[in-house]
Amino acid sequence: MSTTNFNVKEHIVEAQHIREYARATSFSEEEILKLAELYEPLWDELYLRSKDNGFRIRSIWIADAAHQNQSAVLNEEKLGNDPSWMDHPRDLLHMVNHFRKEMPLPLFGVGHSFGGNNLASVALIHPRLFTSLILLDPVIIGQSPTGNGSNAPVASAFRRDLWPSREAAVAGFRKSPFYQSWDPRVLEAWNKYGIRETPTLLYPNEKGSMTLSTPKYHEVQTFIRPTFSDPINGPLAPITNYSHPDMDPSSPPTELFYSPAPAMVLTQLPHLRPSVLYVFGGTSNMALPVFNDEKMRLTGTGIGGSGGAAKGRVKDVVLEGVGHLIAMEAPVQTAENTARWIGQEMQLWRQEAEKFAGWAKIDVLEKQVLSEKWKNIFGGDPRKRKVGDSPAKL
Predict the structure, then answer these.
(1) Which end of the chain has fewer beta carbons closer than 10 Å to its terminal beta carbon, N or C?
(2) Is the pTM higher than 0.70?
(3) Which residue range(s) make up the domain with 22?
(4) pLDDT of residue 24
(5) Which has the minimum average pLDDT: 108-112, 180-184, 359-363?
């Protein structure tokens, strides 16, 4: 986090008890994992636009997933090879409860890609937690993201992850076509936090070299989950509801890999309570028009939902010429759209807060007992009714 506009505090908190998959941890299912980014420029740009849009940022809370970045360093000796997208949402909710005194309302969730999926999951677990969500090219689609022209798992599995020095690593990143579209400030943050010094569990004999803070194998395991037997995991076949409880029962397993969370969250979008701003990348393969239209059609339209786009509670913005890595490529445009949305939603939140302030002033006993209107609707005390009187129809 930038120290220009923010005072930075680092916290370590235990993760949610019991992970989604048994092999998410290395030795025991009851292993205690801990939570410790590249979006610094986005937060700085958002801060610079907050006053003009009528809101103030009290604090920004960020948690690396238990198997990624600084959390991966903390948990190095405890991690397994089977992380679930459903673990981090529970960790985030646990974090909010842990730091509740420091996180007063309103709370806004801003998440990119995997993180956008995670925040939607948190809101589905606890519908009133977030006032609004800003989801940046979230991976919420009805098909496996790996089957949509994405070679990310293969690229991660075989990417370079060891350099003789930090200087050599940084030089390599600057030459790589992958990083050319990134905002220079984001690349600077990556050069600082995206790599770490060895020795590590993966490279115990490479003292003084540099490797990735998030081991590349954890990247791959985040993207996809295997359906095949493996020498490390042991025989998983035949697939059972215990080993693969989140496979679509209507689709017999024919692929070697699957990724359940994108489709699971998609099917629950109608019940999403917070308002949502979707920011899509115009050239992202996660944001094809058919995918975007589906999210706009579904989000918030069901029981318990916000009312959806028809009620003005869901909006989308497409950043033309920007790919999936929105926060890395276009932090200024992203912040501009985010700030406008938060400013709008803050006005609505203040109106609701004023209504609740009136409720808070009512006598405690009066708030707990039934009003006379309730009793009249019930038809009064049935013990005092005369013969022939009929109770009110409910």
Answers:
(1) C
(2) yes
(3) 13-224+259-355
(4) 53
(5) 359-363
135, part of any domain: yes
For residue 230, tell me if it sits in a domain: no
pLDDT, tens digit, for every residue of 163-187? 999 999 999 999 999 999 999 999 9
Residues assigned a catalytic role? 113, 137, 324
User: Which of 283, 354, 327 is closest to 190 using CA atoms?
Assistant: 327
pLDDT (tens digit per residue) in 59-85: 999 888 988 888 888 888 888 888 899
Residue 126 placed within a domain = yes
36: CATH: 3.40.50.1820
Q: Per the domain annotation, does 6 fall within a domain?
A: no
**Residue 68 burial (CB < 10 Å; 0-12/13-18/19+)?**
buried
